[in-house]
Amino acid sequence: MQIDCNVLYVSDNGAGSVDFIKVIKTETVHVCTAESIEEAQKIFDEKRPKVILFYYSTVEISEEIYFSIYRNSKYIHNTPHRAVVICDHVDIEKANHKCIRGIFFDYVVMSPRFDWIRVNLSIRNALASIGQSAGADKSRDFVRIGEEIQRHKEEMDEVIEKSSAMISSNENSFKDLSRNLTSNIKQFSNDLVNKNQATNSKMTSADINKEADKFSLDVLEKDLQNSKEKINSVMKGYADRLAATQKKHEKSLSALNDLSKSVSKRVLIVEDNEVYGDMVKTVLNKEGGFEVTLTSTVHQGTAFMLSNMPDVVLLDYELPDATAGEFLEKARAVPSLKHTPVIILTSHNNTDVFTTTMMLGAQDFLVKPANKHLILDKINKCLDQARKLETR
Amino acid sequence: MNKESNNAIDIAVIKGLVGDDPGMIQYFFNKFIETVPGNIQEIENSLNNKDYPGIKSSAHKLKSSAKAVGAASMVSICQSMEDESLAGNVEALNEYFERLVQAYEHCKDFMESY
Q1: Closest CA relative to residue B74, chosen from B50, B43, B114
Q2: How far is A277 from chain B (nearest CA, A)?
Q3: pLDDT of A391 higher than 70
Q4: Partner-chain residue, chosen from A279, A318, A371, that has the shortest CB–CB distance to B28
């Protein structure tokens, strides 16, 4: 599938956008531009770009524009993306601060002149950070298989439609044959009456039998036989085509299933203890095949959640900058994160933990350090539950 | 030294968490040795400043790392420091601090020879 836009450039500098596209466009980077919030939001919802580049006179305006798009877009909340801000050198500190806070993924300084190489590098990093290169292949595979399945469905619908038309047309031809038969019988009967009248009703039963022998159903039988053969042949063709399509369809479904299994689930760990956090990250990555991100504060965790939509969150109960409750409150306020499973990591092994977990709206809890089997088991259970919720 | 048993470290804990791979265990032991001195320094600073919430917070942080590697003695001392910091008992805290440093040295010896 051709990617038609994976980078959205939002700026009020209309004339500059044309140059921008020319310079930025590469084999893997496809840029579209927007000059207003409405336009940007519309393009985002239609094209779902992976990177949004903002270029306004100040970093604050870029941030404001980004938030406005965020508020108005239907899909931005659940589409992994990165926001990059292009700024003036006087704004470096602010831009850096906003990157640290997780609002922007990166910033590029535009003065004294545009550093195109730096812009390209930033786009590449942004794309790579959300697994664009690996993910894009998979997402293209998803689209390809989806298109195949749609094609198979259309083929099967077509065959079924043609079969129905065939059945209906043959019903008509049987009706014709039946009408012919009735008409022939009537004709025979009239002929017989006329002949009988011509002989002053002196036809004997032997005469009638003789006339009856002349009445032949051969033609009708032949017509019937022809029709039957034609129907059989056409219907067999349809049945073969249906079976072949069904086989292809099953193959596509199986490929889709395999592809779904091969897509790593993403886990966000919010844990301020570096040693423990790194251990859990390593285990989940190596043993569970998860794509894991470790953040150490509620602030970083929330920022990551908003732009990356992890499948599961492991949340330390005691964090330095805010409580687990505050994290959950922020997460649950975003519709697309309402049901993201959150597992509380706690050092306290007492009965209150369960109550607290439930009160916070988390799915489960783990008492640290916990063994790897238990951690993996709880994550997988949460993912299963989430999958069931999705399919309802 | 017996690699699998030591008073300072319960090796089964870290194995339960990261598995049996000695390379992996060594990696996390090294990480522990790299980060703990900073935690101990934080506790000492807070202790010198009689910053009890600071002591509690740093001891709690260190307790998590100690738990993860199975350093049971350090876990127990950190817990006591958390409790004593609530009571503001400087004498007890100083005593526990000394024991904490010793316990860490034992753990470090074990980890370095693993």
Answers
A1: B43
A2: 9
A3: no
A4: A279
Quick check: B64 and A370 CB within 8 A?
A: no
Structure tokens at A368: 């640290």
* pLDDT tier, B91 (very low <50, low <70, confident <90, very high otherwise): very high
Which residues does chain A have within 8 Å of residue B18's beta carbon, measured at their own beta carbons?
A: 279, 282-283, 372
Q: What is the pLDDT of residues A348-382, one digit of tens each?
A: 766 676 677 777 788 888 888 888 889 998 898 88
Asked if residue A255 lies in contact with residue A145, where contact means CB atoms within 8 angstroms, the answer is yes
CB contact under 8 A, B65 and A287: no
Q: Is the pLDDT of residue A100 over 60?
A: yes
Sort out which chain B residues have CB atoms less than 8 A from A369's CB and list them.
13, 16-17, 67-68
**Contact (CB<8Å) A369/B67:** yes
Rounded distance between C-alpha atoms, residue A88 and residue A78, angstroms: 31
Q: What pLDDT score does A16 carry? A: 66
Q: How far is the C-alpha of A160 from the C-alpha of A45, rounded, in Å?
A: 36
- A236-249: per-residue pLDDT in tens? 888 888 888 888 88
Look at residue A262 and tell me whether its pLDDT is greater than 70: no
Output the pLDDT for position A135. Answer: 45
Evaluate whether A301 touches A295 at the Cβ level (below 8 Å). yes
Question: Hey, which residues 60-89 in chain B have their CB within 8 Å of chain A?
Answer: 60-61, 63-65, 67-69
Adjacency order of strands within the sheet including A31-34: A31-34, A7-11, A51-55, A82-87, A106-109
The reply to whether residue B18 touches residue A278, judged by beta carbons under 8 angstroms, is no
Reported ipTM: the value is 0.88
